[in-house]
């Protein structure tokens, strides 16, 4: 019992992963002296320091004043693409996704509530150079439609060139007519080629969504759900020109000219009322405004009206209370609208009235 306990000596690993790790640790010990291995050339040190400062400077952005009000106006989402590529079907699918409302005929802007704090105004862009230019000036987000069965067309490149001139907003690509590819290998290769070609035109990493087919006049719900989630959470950097100039996208146009005057002189000067959300800065009375395609005019009066499609700010007290989730007066989705001197109630025609009109 008096004998001392003898421990075995530590055996250093001479092979294996531990031995390699220990050898690698002490291999470059003599080179880890920072004072002994500085730059030999003063010019090279100066050049590297300048490059480091320039790279850090590129990360900064010019601070921009955030002029958005407490309740921001709806974001303008422009759907752009060549003919027969699915622009109207995409708007119908997104409106159905956000509001559970089925639109039969889309004319003009369609405003929907996309969340607790955001609204979207969808607008289809016509295949005309003037329409593309006007849309590029006001669109916050552009959904660029590409027909996969045909490829990139001239309208796509023209609109991208217009965007570079008038302010490059956020661009997302939507690839349609993918159901024409029967071979899975060819479909995968086409997606890859379209994605890299799209990145070349816009920027590396730009979002490109794939819509494979149409069911019941709409795109597949799963694909539209994916697209709508990205549209709802997109972050936009304000453009300098738009944040310093007032502009308005007209949701509703009304002719206030006296009918007797028009009956006597059909070419008489008209008095028009334009309704819409004001964006940018404040618009003052008696200002001169430019209407695309018509010219410069002077405002006679500006009035602030109640929001026709407000953000749901309170919980429903009863189950039959419904928030208004869509506003599209040109597409005959109005509901109840209030003006200074009138109240407009949209009453849908009954089936027997429609049949009577068809019979006439």
Describe the structure.
The chain has 360 residues and is of the alpha/beta class. 32% of the residues lie in helices and 19% in strands. It is built from 10 helices and 15 strands. The strands form 5 sheets. The protein has a 7-stranded mixed sheet with strand order 6-5-4-1-3-2-13, sandwiched between helices. It has a two-stranded antiparallel ribbon with strand order 7-8. Strand 4 (141-147), helix 5 and strand 5 form a beta-alpha-beta unit. The longest helix has 18 residues, at 184-201. It is elongated and about 125 Å long. The model has no long low-confidence stretch (mean pLDDT 81).
Briefly summarize what is shown:
The chain is an alpha/beta fold. It has helices at residues 17-27, 42-58, 87-99, 129-138, 154-166, 184-201, 221-232, 240-244, 259-264, 351-359; strands spanning 75-80, 110-113, 119-124, 141-147, 170-176, 208-210, 214-215, 218-219, 247-255, 272-279, 288-291, 295-298, 326-327, 336-338, 343-345.
Keywords:
single chain, 360 residues, alpha/beta, 7-stranded mixed beta sheet, two-stranded antiparallel sheet, 15 strands, 32% helix
Write the layout of secondary structure elements.
Elements: H1 17-27, H2 42-58, E1 75-80, H3 87-99, E2 110-113, E3 119-124, H4 129-138, E4 141-147, H5 154-166, E5 170-176, H6 184-201, E6 208-210, E7 214-215, E8 218-219, H7 221-232, H8 240-244, E9 247-255, H9 259-264, E10 272-279, E11 288-291, E12 295-298, E13 326-327, E14 336-338, E15 343-345, H10 351-359
Parallel strand pairs: 1-3, 1-4, 4-5, 5-6
Antiparallel strand pairs: 2-3, 2-13, 7-8, 9-10, 11-12, 14-15
